[in-house]
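Dear support,

We are seeing what looks like truncated structure output for some complexes. This example has two components. We would appreciate it if you could run it in full and send us the complete token output so we can diff it against ours.
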Amino acid sequence: MEARASEGTKVPITAPAVDPELLHELVDHLRQNREALREEWVRRITEAKLLSVMEPDEIFSEVTAVYDNYVTALETGSVETLQEYARDLSERIIPRGVETDEVLGIVLLLRDVLARSLFVNYERDQRDPDLLHRILDSYEPAANSIAVTVGVSFVDERERIIREQQEAIRELSTPVLQVRERLLILPIIGVLDSARARQLTEQLLGAIRDNRARVVVIDVTGVATIDMTVANHLVQAVEAARLMGASAILTGLSSGIAQTLVDLGLDLGSIQTVGDLQGGLEEAERLLATSAPPADEASARLSR
Amino acid sequence: MSVAILHHGEYVIASIQSDLSDREVMALRDDLANRVGERRARGLIVDVAALDVIDSFVARALRTIAETTQMRGAETVIVGIQPDVAIAMVQFRLNLEPLRAALDLDEGIQILDRLLHRGSPDAR
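Here is the complete output from our reference environment:
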């Protein structure tokens, strides 16, 4: 996961300068009231209907871990451990459908719960009326930086998952399969963009060379929409295949796509199209039969 | 000149060994047209496997070669276009129509065999 390490540098991990004594005081307070504050936090989370996909005891154990990490982060000024934990947590909860607003929501709730508690505790301090302000001055920047860290970790993790999935889709969706000697099929599934179309053409041409293919059936049944750019890419793939001595047959154009292509005024005249994959394979067999070593009978069918 | 020209039965095979200058391309064109006539060849195969680039000039020369030799009674097949070259050609909208292309020498010979023994010039 080297991607993860490089992303880490994006997160601001510098702790704001605070008075160490005040911070000590603050952390002591939060440690002493751990049970009560934690309860309060869980109550607020449940009240706000956040993390609805998780069980109550599950929430409780995560909350405990986050709380402790949070206080440690406040104390040491280093959010690295918390960051690590947040990534871990994200990895676990993202697949279950926890949304960004929920994660940000619970972190901000914790910030509020703790701030409220500090407020109540130091408001009536007669010895030093200014203490509350200074405590909050120390607390707020640290708390904000923690909230940012958790939020960013969550989003990072989410992006990483999306990237991995994109990668997986890219790899999965462009197989070039040999059906028999000299005959390849290229089933295209998903969304074609320029980058993928180029990669696809390269793979196709490589496969033509390696398998000494004479006929290629390109099946686009699994492609939802085709626009001008994609259509041009397909035409290019077919022409490039032809330059390498392979005929291409395009199959599986849905009526909607066919309509679009006609409306766009695109000329697919140079490409042989057949309704479905089965028809395409039959046509391919015919082409292969006629391109087999000379047979007089075959030549009659050849001129189309 | 870095083109090997071989004779194989009724076919002439021109194997281009390295990128050619424009002048060499022209010389090749004239040479091939002459040979096809002298040898009474029925087929010409141009092997471009060694070329890293086929630009518009070379593409046009190949087309001219095909047209010239056809007038002298021989069919032309271009063989050995590499994947990268094919992609580049398509992107620059160079095509070799109405030339025939085949994967390699073997395939090229087969195509010519089919063409000449059937008399169906459209075969591919």
